[in-house]
Design a protein that fits this description.
Elements (H helix, E strand, L loop, with lengths): L13 H11 L3 H33 L1 H26 L5 H17 L1 H16 L7 E4 L2 E8 L3 E6 L4 E5 H6 L2 E3 L24
Antiparallel strand pairs: 1-2, 1-5, 2-3, 3-4
Helix pairs in contact: 2-3, 3-5
Length: about 200
């Protein structure tokens, strides 16, 4: 028996094809206008990011200031991109749908990274410790050197630099030895059974 060829027909998204067609029909003047709008959004976003970072650094700490300023810049850039496409008459509905699917896939693939990211934000907002504090958490004793979006850097008293994931620090108990300024230390000393207790 001679095998018959099988034809497979792939159905394309009409909206996506229409968007690609609209981009292909743009003139040079349309591209220049769209690029000018995006460049303006980038410039305004950089200025607003700097202002936001300076205002929030003293109030909420450098980590929150860095995060919020970057989100403000990304939001303004996205608004400029959308406005530029709308201005030249390009439909952005299919693009937004594609970005939504990509965002969902990214969130599922990087759950641990997002967990550390959110924990870093919560640590910066609640501030159970500051840079330079001596703490004990997740089995490590030392001085806090940095709190990034992924991990908390602790230098132990042995001179070892440890990077503890923020999610671990957030879930584990935190002992801050610096906040109250003073603490009690108990030292056990052994003596011989025949020692004079009064002399000891």
């Amino acid at each position: 028996m001679i095998p018959l060829p099988v034809l497979v027909f792939a159905q394309t998204d009409p909206a996506a094809d229409d968007t690609i067609g609209q981009l292909g029909r743009l003139s040079a003047a349309d591209w220049i206008v769209a690029a000018s709008i995006i460049v303006g959004a980038v410039a305004f976003g950089l200025i607003l990011r700097t202002v936001t970072s300076r205002l929030l650094t003293e109030r909420s700490g450098p980590l929150v200031a860095q995060l919020v300023s970057r989100l403000v810049f990304a939001l303004l850039l996205a608004i400029g991109f959308v406005y530029a496409l709308n201005f030249v008459g390009v439909s952005i509905g299919p693009l937004l749908g594609l970005l939504g699917l990509l965002g969902l896939a990214f969130a599922l693939a990087f759950q641990e990274v997002l967990g550390n990211f959110i924990a870093g934000i919560m640590l910066s907002l609640q501030r159970p410790f500051r840079i330079g504090d001596e703490i004990r958490t997740a089995g490590y004793d030392g001085t806090v050197e940095e709190v990034s979006l992924r991990s908390t850097t602790i230098r132990t008293f042995d001179g070892v630099q440890v990077f503890v994931p923020n999610s671990t620090v957030w879930e584990e108990p935190i002992e801050n030895h610096t906040t109250l300024g003073a603490r009690r230390t108990t030292i056990e000393m052994g003596v011989g059974y025949d020692s004079d207790l009064d002399a000891v």
